[in-house]
């Protein structure tokens, strides 16, 4: 793996929009788009490490994806997760490169036992790795995350005067992740969704691609990182 340049973002988050539209444009079922997206994700993850990105966060599914979409599509998506997460934990490069895999969201409440066992295995077998961080947001909503953080602070009995950025961060699902430097969204619709990582993207640079996610390949990802290296981050200065 490449040594990270000081210009390469330490933490990149990706919102992969466009799987269903990609499939519809080809007369395919929605889950064919999700399958194509999953194949693409494998390539992007490898490219991110090759470029020296230390933490990579990927929004796999929102809570709304799992509650509002047709049952057949949901079932197919969960089957894709089983296949690709099994393949991931058995990938030698994950262990060779010391990649820690985290699952973030309400997946324990939403997913079937067979899939939960695979996801738990991913976490358990990589929990001591610390060279790279690979984080999947599954059954996740940033709005839900922030509301739960506020409830946790209230019930903890902490004095309002003692609430700081640090104490709030410790209540979040993302408590172990660094701030996001670069947020990428594909699919041609330049907006944020459901408060995705709202606390962690406060100072992030944003990149919106018109390309539907299955076509946003490793080269397109590398080009987006190159764009980041040309930007000047001022942090209010």
Rg from Cα = 18 Å
Biggest sheet features: 6 strands, parallel
Give the number of domains: 1
Let me know the number of strands: 6
Quote the average pLDDT.
93
| Rough outline | globular
Q: What would CATH call the class?
A: Alpha Beta
List unreliable stretches of 5+ residues.
none
- Secondary-structure element order, as H and E? EHHEHHHEHHEHHEEH
Helix count, per DSSP?
Answer: 10
CATH superfamily placement? Decaprenyl diphosphate synthase-like
Structure explained in plain terms:
This protein is an alpha/beta fold. It has a single domain (11-228), classed as Decaprenyl diphosphate synthase-like (Undecaprenyl pyrophosphate synthetase), CATH 3.40.1180. Helix content is 46%, strand content 13%. It has ten helices and six strands. It has helices at 19-25, 30-51, 63-68, 71-89, 92-96, 107-110, 113-126, 142-156, 165-169, 218-229, and strands spanning 11-15, 55-59, 99-104, 132-137, 182-185, 205-208. A six-stranded parallel sheet has the order 3-4-2-1-5-6. Helix 2 packs across helix 10 and helix 4 (71-89) packs parallel to helix 7. The chain is globular. The two termini are 34 Å apart. The model has no long low-confidence stretch (mean pLDDT 93).
